[in-house]
Amino acid sequence: MARVDGKVAIVTGGASGMGAADAEVLSREGASVVVADLNEADGRAVAERVGGNAVFMKLDVTDEANWQQVIARTVEKFGRLDILVNNAGVLAVGTVVDTTLESWRMINAVNSEGVFLGCKHAIPAMVESGGGSIINMSSVAAIHGQSFVAAYTASKGAVRALTKNVAMYCKEQKNGVRCNSIHPDGVATPMIVKVATGKDTASEEDIEKLRHVENICEPVDIANLVLYLASDESRYVTGAEMLVDNGSTITPPVGV
Ligand SMILES: NC(=O)c1ccc[n+]([C@@H]2O[C@H](COP(=O)([O-])OP(=O)(O)OC[C@H]3O[C@@H](n4cnc5c(N)ncnc54)[C@H](O)[C@@H]3O)[C@@H](O)[C@H]2O)c1
């Protein structure tokens, strides 16, 4: 039997990078996947490539009514909701002094409020399905201060803390819903190209150039952990923060 056979998953930010890899791995292992993203063209292409029961649904994670629609449509189409991967995210470079309030609000609206809305509206649908697994994409930025991305760091810190709050709430409710966060360092996706090069778009060639950097892994390295957390193999894992960072957070500072 496949590892998430018969389960139904929503993957936000599924049109690109890690979300596309999550959709692919979850579908390969038997889940029906909703690829949810703002980017319609790429999202539809991912759903088509993933195959199986995968479908695209347009979702802006900052829009509460849109979340309610997508969850209702998912349950209508597939009969249940078992897995939510809160993966959609945005990043802008800026120190605490450089960052504008507008940029701070935009980043926190997507990365932090978007995850809150996903948890809020997915939990009741998962309870109806007998339980579920929420996987929130945070970052090593939530663990060590990254001075060049102030708003992003704060938003990922919020995701780290909210994950524990949701896990505790669900444990108290005994509702069968688990919630964990993943903290990657660098992953070879368009997002990291934008950080490394300052470009607005990322070609496959740009991504290839970053592949030799020590702590940069592939989207599938994250998707394999998503699969574990989504499956019943992790039934005793909740409230955990899981690093995929090649030891970057335990590496002592050089030259101190
Ligand atoms: N790439 C890395 O090095 C890295 C490291 C740590 C954490 N992360 C986190 O992993 C997640 C995925 O990142 P990625 O590298 O695959 O990025 P990516 O830029 O390749 O993909 C992000 C996706 O999110 C979608 N998105 C953005 N705003 C949205 C919104 N309002 N509603 C719905 N979808 C929206 C985009 O359209 C895009 O498809 C993000 O949360 C990111 O912060 C990435």
UniProtKB/TrEMBL annotation:
GO terms for molecular function: glucose 1-dehydrogenase [NAD(P)+] activity. PROSITE patterns: ADH_SHORT. NCBIfam families: PRK07231.1 (NF005559). Its EC number is 1.1.1.47. Keywords: Oxidoreductase. The lineage of its organism: Bacteria, Pseudomonadati, Pseudomonadota, Gammaproteobacteria, Cellvibrionales. PANTHER family: 3-OXOACYL-(ACYL-CARRIER-PROTEIN) REDUCTASE (AFU_ORTHOLOGUE AFUA_6G11210), SHORT-CHAIN DEHYDROGENASE_REDUCTASE FAMILY PROTEIN. SUPFAM superfamilies: NAD(P)-binding Rossmann-fold domains. Belongs to the short-chain dehydrogenases/reductases (SDR) family. This is Glucose 1-dehydrogenase. The keyword Oxidoreductase applies. InterPro entries: NAD(P)-bd_dom_sf, Sc_DH/Rdtase_CS, SDR_fam.
